[in-house]
Amino acid sequence: MNERWSADDVWALAPDASSTKGALKVAKPASWPARGWRAGPDGGVAAVWGECKGSGAKPYQAAVDLAGEGAPVSRCSCPSRKFPCKHTLAVLYLWAIGEVDGPDDGPAWVGEWLESRAARARKRTETSAEQSPEARKQAEKTAREREELVSSGLDELELWLADQVEAGLSEAPRKNRDHWKLMGQRLVDAKAGGAAGRVTELASLTRATDWPDRMLQEFALLRLLINGYRTAPTLSERTRAAVRERIGFGLRTEEVLQTGERVRDRWRVLALHDAADAEANLTTRRLWLRGEDTGRTALSLTFAAPNEAPTPALRPGAVYDTEVAFYPNGYRVTVASTHGKVDDEADPPEGDSVADALRHYADALAVDPWLDAWPVVLAGVRVAREPQWSLVDSDGAALPLHDDELPPWTLLAVSGGEPVTVSAEWTPWGLHSPTVWGQGQKAVAP
Questions:
Q1: How confident is the model over 52-78, as a mean pLDDT?
Q2: Spatial separation of the C-alpha atoms in residues 253 and 327, rounded to whole Å
Q3: Integer Cα distance of 236 and 92 in angstroms
Q4: Where is this region: Disordered (predicted)?
């Protein structure tokens, strides 16, 4: 990239007006004691980077790769799920108005990130080059046929959803699971296994007391998934990846390890939740991690057959020196290697208020609207029983506990009625799998 952008070029990347407003607040040279741009082979600007003073001890690290084709790709160590985040926009804006000097290769983290991107690009090129022209042609044909099948399956799903709404929820079969399975099977035939799973799960909703509301919510999310697939070119890279994963275009672990972004960090385990699926005869483990240095949030999603222990076996609250490989959606990972436990009795992580935790969740939903769980860390919360079992912060805001966690004996025993730090998995139905840090105690998980 040889030409400096204008401010309008920068703000055109903003995901929403609030991101622009937030970027302008931090787009001050004094907030960025370290900033610069890296030169490409042609002498032009290949990347812009900066370190912004935040509320914590460590600065937020933001960088933008301008050398690739298409829209620029960015990374930032802040917890925001908006892409690009306000820090990325701010450092680009400072560069656009001439407040970023260069060329300057910057600290090691900049080069490591750019090299990891280059390595993945080389791997993709090598893999493509290894294929014969005939094999590439066949692979392209297979991919086109898959897209056509999925498209026709989603067209049929759209008509089916309209039929359900037109008939009215009072006519929804509450005991006949075959009604839901039939549409699910059609989507399986259309190679849209992810969407098929969501449709099949609709049958279980009819047993809930608030099933009409939840059914309509799921109908809306399915309709949004259809729209996302049809408008994929207009979506951000990570939302597009989320859409394809939710539909069923999954990646094998080997592919993620080969082409995914590798990040080695001191990863703290925020929450671990195992869910048994009797019908599928397997256990799903959701392991939520947060990087101590990068600030990134990661989800390790694994499955175990009967009589097998789910992996990885990491303890909530502990910190591990681990390298993970990210899926294209930007938060799911597969664990590449673990180099040992760093701290089994680490101090509590920096926590949020309830309002801040919900804002982080909203940012995550803006990228992946079908996300039904996200980790939260709440600081200075008390356990309250009225009007329902909840965690209440100093502002009086509360998040309810999931029914599966009641009564919360561990939380009550560790806290003793005093404010504590709690990390947990937040879902629309309450907090799951809480880990609690009491006064002077190590992390305790129920």
A1: 84
A2: 9
A3: 18
A4: 121-147
